[in-house]
């Protein structure tokens, strides 16, 4: 019988060594950073640790009790340059929305990414830009050679995005020529989608190239630029105009609002599924995924936040769909209405001051000397304690003489003149676009004042003064028109009842009849009033119709240009 008798230990040690190889041999051992663990059976080397070249990686296993017993195995690895990611906008966002009067900035020299370097060096590359009207035409070309966006040649079958090349501004012409491109506002058509492409070529090695894409939707509004990126960038691999994802992993996205993003009301994510367009092989037809709400917090998380996650269940349960689009929509409160309301609130104090100034100006009264003497004689012998109280209360009211009316009107016109002066000055400083926005906010503030602000101020002040400042036994406005000391009737008044009874009823009413001329005059005035009301009503009907027509015309109607184009082609 054979028995195995081994009293020694079978423990081993492992050691990784890395050597740089030349064309003939691998003799130069590389000393790695101490953070790289070389004593495990697995070796992990962080990115940008090894320079470009060929390396020999050797794993040696040695017996602890018998150091002479060892074994090794090698593998050869070539380190090459990683392809750059060409980004036209921040975070490599593939689709954005801009206003027709907003400048459109593409800056691949700043936003592109080189995984092998900490900072992208824009001076090492050449930049060429292309543009096409998406979903309708291909990129303009002549015999298969693409025409750049600034090329004056014309492709009759694929028109250019711009009818006038003066709306293009290339930046960084000294250090890195054409590394940025600005398309001025007004150069692109409304309610149209454009696809921009940048082709980048290495200056030293023309075989190293990169291409970046972005879709731009042009609207009549002035939206902010929203950038979308992957939380883990290595899980989103750029592939032309798309990004490759592993269907067995989740996708985590985040958004950043570029610029002034105040008055944010809501954030909403939309998911679309894509298919090849039947009319064109160079565009994708997107359909809204209608089960988003059903699978919220199951497949989708954070649909109303800036961080969105879609689990792998979305892809695994829809394997027939290979193209997905994730869109985020930011909704902002209208700044025009906010500015209008703020302007009205700031003007509340001067408005109240001017109104009170006008209200406290006494009317101009011209009383004859005889009437003044009679009133003075009548009031002297009959002044009792109650009359003194009434006179005292009337004396407490603070009023201005009638000639202050000229001062009030002068003050009002001065405010108007100062406002016009500031509009002119600020218009010169701000420029046309900001001046239009400012005047729009003024008009919006005017209408919001009529519809919203002024009614709220009137109701609020009425409730405040009624509850806290008004004495129910002292009605000042009524006393302005009612004189409790005067019991005589006016010329057009009669007593309804009398204490004197008589069998003969003699009417004491004084009847004033109109003559023929006065009746004709009143009839003519009434006819004019009726005609004026008819004209006003007709004007209002036409105004409402015009507003509805303008509103319908201003709404973005997508699909009609494509439908018309398809109709004429067929």
UniProtKB/TrEMBL annotation:
GO cellular component, one term: membrane
Record has Transmembrane as a keyword: yes
Location of the PKD/REJ-like domain: 2-283
One term of GO molecular function: calcium channel activity
One GO biological process term: detection of mechanical stimulus
Keywords: Membrane, Transmembrane, Transmembrane helix
Highest taxon listed in the record's lineage: Eukaryota
Transmembrane segments: 332-358, 402-425, 445-469
Record's protein name: PKD/REJ-like domain-containing protein
Residues spanning the signal sequence: none
InterPro entries in the cross-refs: PKD/REJ-like, Polycystin
């Amino acid at each position: 019988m054979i028995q195995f008798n081994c009293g020694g230990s079978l423990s081993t040690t492992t050691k990784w060594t890395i050597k740089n190889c030349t064309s003939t041999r691998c003799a130069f051992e590389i000393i790695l950073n101490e953070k790289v663990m070389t004593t495990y059976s697995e070796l992990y080397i962080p990115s940008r640790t090894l320079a470009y070249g060929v390396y020999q990686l050797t794993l040696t296993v040695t017996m602890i009790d018998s150091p002479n017993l060892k074994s090794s195995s090698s593998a050869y690895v070539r380190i090459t340059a990683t392809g750059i990611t060409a980004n036209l906008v921040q975070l490599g966002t593939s689709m954005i929305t801009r206003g027709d009067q907003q400048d459109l900035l593409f800056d691949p020299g700043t936003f592109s990414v080189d995984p092998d370097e900490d900072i992208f060096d824009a001076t090492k590359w050449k930049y060429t830009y292309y543009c096409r009207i998406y979903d309708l035409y291909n990129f303009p070309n002549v015999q298969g050679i693409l025409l750049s966006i600034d090329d004056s040649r014309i492709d009759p079958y694929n028109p250019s995005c711009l009818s006038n090349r003066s709306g293009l501004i290339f930046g960084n012409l000294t250090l890195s020529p054409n590394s940025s491109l600005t398309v001025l506002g007004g150069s692109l058509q409304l309610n149209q989608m454009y696809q921009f492409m940048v082709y980048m070529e290495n200056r030293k090695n023309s075989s190293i190239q990169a291409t970046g894409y972005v879709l731009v939707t042009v609207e009549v509004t002035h939206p902010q630029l929203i950038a979308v990126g992957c939380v883990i960038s290595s899980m989103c691999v750029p592939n032309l105009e798309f990004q490759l994802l592993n269907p067995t992993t989740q996708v985590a996205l985040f958004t950043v609002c570029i610029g002034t993003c105040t008055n944010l009301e809501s954030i909403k994510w939309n998911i679309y599924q894509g298919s090849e367009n039947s009319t064109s092989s160079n565009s994708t037809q997107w359909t809204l995924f209608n089960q988003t709400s059903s699978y919220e917090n199951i497949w989708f998380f954070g649909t109303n936040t800036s961080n969105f996650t879609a689990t792998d269940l979305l892809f695994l349960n829809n394997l027939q769909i290979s193209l997905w689009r994730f869109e985020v929509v930011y909704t902002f409160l209208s700044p025009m209405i906010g500015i209008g309301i703020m302007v009205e609130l700031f003007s509340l104090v001067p408005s109240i001051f001017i109104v009170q100034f006008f209200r406290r100006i006494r009317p101009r009264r011209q009383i004859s000397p005889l009437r003044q003497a009679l009133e003075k004689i009548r009031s002297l012998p009959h002044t009792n304690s109650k009359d003194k109280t009434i006179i005292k209360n009337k004396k407490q009211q603070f009023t201005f003489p009638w000639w202050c009316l000229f001062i009030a009107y002068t003050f009002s016109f001065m405010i108007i003149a100062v406002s016009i002066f500031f509009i002119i000055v600020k218009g010169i400083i701000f420029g046309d676009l900001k001046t239009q926005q400012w005047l729009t906010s003024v008009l919006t503030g005017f209408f919001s004042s009529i519809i919203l602000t002024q009614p709220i101020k009137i109701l609020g002040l009425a409730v405040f003064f009624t509850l806290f400042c008004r004495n129910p036994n002292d009605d000042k406005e009524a006393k302005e028109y009612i004189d409790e000391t005067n019991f005589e009737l006016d010329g057009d008044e009669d007593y309804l009842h009398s204490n004197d009874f008589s069998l003969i009823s003699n009417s004491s009413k004084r009847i004033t009849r109109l003559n023929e001329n006065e009746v004709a005059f009143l009839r003519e005035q009434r006819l004019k009033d009726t005609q004026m009301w008819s004209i006003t009503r007709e004007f209002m009907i036409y105004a409402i119709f015009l507003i509805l027509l303008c509103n319908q015309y201003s709404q973005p109607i997508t699909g009609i240009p494509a439908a018309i184009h398809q109709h004429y082609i067929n």
